[in-house]
Amino acid sequence: MISRPRRSRASWIVVGGLSLGVVALIFLRSAWAPLMQDFSRPFLNQMQYLLSGLPAMKQEWELYRQQALKQKALYEELSQLRRKLKAMEIVADENQRLRDLLKLAPPKGYEKIGAQVIARSPSQWFSRLQIDKGFEDGLSLNRVVMNRHGVVGKVVELSANTAMVQLLTDPDSSVSCMTERMRKPAILSGGGPGEVSQLKYLENYTRVVAGEKILTSGLGGTFPPDLLLGTVQEVIQQPGHPVPEVKIKLAAFAEILREVVVLVPDSASDSTSGSVPEPVSERESEPESEPVPGP
């Protein structure tokens, strides 16, 4: 005789138990239904509160979105205004530089020709720069170049429409100069990269103070006298050395070099110096005859 497996008997027991449980719940629902309602009431109340607040939350979100869009528009407008302000500041600074160049009074016998810096090689940053004026504009070699603060250098190369300027910071630059207070002569030498320009060949025991101006002396014929080169930055007096070590802060290099003027002899002096003498008449050129002594 074949016996049934115990697994099928256990399954019937489980099904029967579940059925009895369902029947009991149905007949005893009056007892467990209030318990379930009490248990779920806080959750249902919270859900009802949240659902009732959805329209308000939607309205607040829309208001927040509109405020965010307005804020973004204001930020963009502010950025545009800042860019415009920066551009206006650049234009105002350029206008001020040009006004100062126009007000710059050239030395007697000179006139100024405005020019703009168009090139400056990084390898010769402290030695050379190029301007947009040449010999067709009236320039010639060794003409002095200035900006609104002081002397920049001199013209050393020329083409038809451009010129190369040797800067005061060039290590090969040497300018005859003098101190402002005692009018003592010296030579201003260029410092070069990482160096400061210095005064050389000062007289022994010359008194120089910090902040004193250094001017061109006019010796040598290239630089007219009394043009500002710079101010004394530091004076070092070594023991046993009668000549102090004087470091100079060049005036023209206090700002980026953009616009300059070139000093050229004015037309009046050119016409005077280049005028042809009036021809002497033939009668006036004949020497007076000496009287012949009588017999």
Keywords:
six-stranded antiparallel β-barrel; Thrombin, subunit H; 24% strand; 295 residues; 5 helices
The CATH superfamily title of the largest domain: Rod shape-determining protein MreC, domain 1
Total separate domains:
2
The largest sheet has its strands arranged as 1-2-5-4-3-12
User: Unreliable runs, pLDDT <50, ≥5 residues?
Assistant: 271-295
Shape: elongated
Describe this structure in words.
The protein is an alpha+beta fold. The chain has two domains: 46-103; 110-267, Thrombin, subunit H (Beta Barrel). 36% of the residues lie in helices and 24% in strands. It has five helices and twelve strands. A six-stranded antiparallel beta barrel has the order 1-2-5-4-3-12. Strands 6-7-8-11-10-9 form a six-stranded antiparallel barrel. A hairpin with an 8-residue loop joins strand 1 and strand 2. The radius of gyration is 48 Å and the shape is elongated. The model is unreliable at 271-295 (pLDDT under 50).
List the helices and strands and how they pair.
Layout: H1 6-27, H2 29-52, H3 54-103, E1 110-119, E2 128-131, E3 144-146, E4 151-158, E5 163-167, E6 174-179, E7 185-189, E8 197-200, E9 213-216, E10 228-236, E11 245-250, E12 259-265, H4 267-273, H5 282-285
Antiparallel strand pairs: 1-2, 1-12, 2-5, 3-4, 3-12, 4-5, 6-7, 6-9, 7-8, 8-11, 9-10, 10-11
Provide a brief overview of the structure.
With 295 residues, the chain is of the alpha+beta class.
